[in-house]
Amino acid sequence: MNFKNLKTYLFIGISIISLTFLQSCSDNDGENTSRVQLKLVDAPGDYEEVNVVITDIQYNTTSNENGWQSFAAAEAYPIEVDLTELIAGNSLLLTDQLIPSGMMKQIRLVLGDGNTLKIEGNETMIPLNTPSALQSGLKLNLNTELEGGFTYTFILDWIVSESIVESGSTGSYNLKPVIKVNAEVNSGSVSGIVVENIEEVVTALENVIVEIYNSEEVKVTDTLTDVNGNFLFQGLAAGTYKIKITREGYNEYSAETNITVGEVTEAGTIVLTKVTP
Description:
disordered N terminus; 9-stranded mixed β-sheet; 2 helices; 6-stranded mixed β-sheet; globular; mainly beta; Immunoglobulin-like
């Protein structure tokens, strides 16, 4: 199973589910249908790879368990993705479909077998045990009214660090997905670049954990920098936040930033300095 084939689907997004109200649909039945896009992003964990298999993505406009419908035909699945690649604004487009307008109460991801984990220093792929309940569908509440003729984008922020649970000392791991929800229509984003400057040589720092805290010093989420040192947080409610970076061998970085609805705040270039011996 090759989890790298979906790299061509990855794209940079200004991006846990978030909702954004984008543009008018141009189809003839626009008043009766809404365009729904689902994008997947990741908040990192300390793993080299986290490969998951999605065998179906469904939505429900009712409170009835019999009301589930698939976004796409069976041949669109499975979707196989390495979650660790979804950083620094990279996201995976899971679906892009027209559906009848009206209340969307829930969506669910149906997970298959073959989910695996790769830990740093270990070349062996470790099976991720997936509870049978998740194979019948991980439900996510939306309760969002879809207006006819418009496009809605839901961004699923999969929190890997909270989604993988080691089973005692057996060396086995369980997959228990945690996905955050927020409405991007009421939110903004913040981006930046992390580098070091040694003897006037500026070098981008990859795989740096960047954390963001709210005004009450409560951690909201974190992300990793990519190969160019870039990071991006999306789906943040308007307000004042603090960006923090703690990296071994470097002095701690902390700075406030203000988030404005509908805008991307530039944190600029963050220069980490080495700890003086």
